[in-house]
Amino acid sequence: xxxxxxxxxxxxxxxxxxxxxxxxxxxxxxxxxxxxxxxxxxxxxxxxxxxxxxxxxxxxxxxxxxxxxxxxxxxxxxxxxxxxxxxxxxxxxxxxxxxxxxxxxxxxxxxxxx
Amino acid sequence: xxxxxxxxxxxxxxxxxxxxxxxxxxxxxxxxxxxxxxxxxxxxxxxxxxxxxxxxxxxxxxxxxxxxxxxxxxxxxxxxxxxxxxxxxxxxxxxxxxxxxxxxxxxxxxxxx
Lengths: 114, 113
Prior knowledge:
The complex is a heterodimer of chains A (114) and B (113). Chain A has 114 residues and is mainly beta.
């Protein structure tokens, strides 16, 4: 069965610093991979997704993620953090032959210090 | 255009009561998903509808949970004889098909006293 592990339930960075949120997945077949962001009291918003095309995926708000099959990783990065990036981030996996249901990691709360 | 809407936004109920949560997907989306977000369990898949196919109920935690989707559009998640452990935010998502991006609603926060 597939699973997702997000390393670090809380990450704190200074404004302008690099953001790195880690995600490792387990899947017996090539997965689709996603990063979602959740702002307080709101639903989930898609940041980016990997569906077996380019391994470096660019998303909204300056975020990007790189699919590394050898490391079974899909880490999320942003070169320069902004205060508005403070939110909870979820990595998720789905299998193309299982109806698209998403299996989520436990989430990483990102804090940005001024 | 309009996104996924859910109602009510908040629901407080007493243990043992039944509740119904509603989801209005984006018009034209054939796939609809329910997820649950709780402190202890994180985000969990509950059930999935795709067109006229039989729903995938593999994520429902007990037989007290059921869902239906009428006319290929609106969906209702029903929880019978609610328990305190059912307290969570219930999220609905829809997509054009099961291989497309899922768009999430704002959720219904259920509190069981």
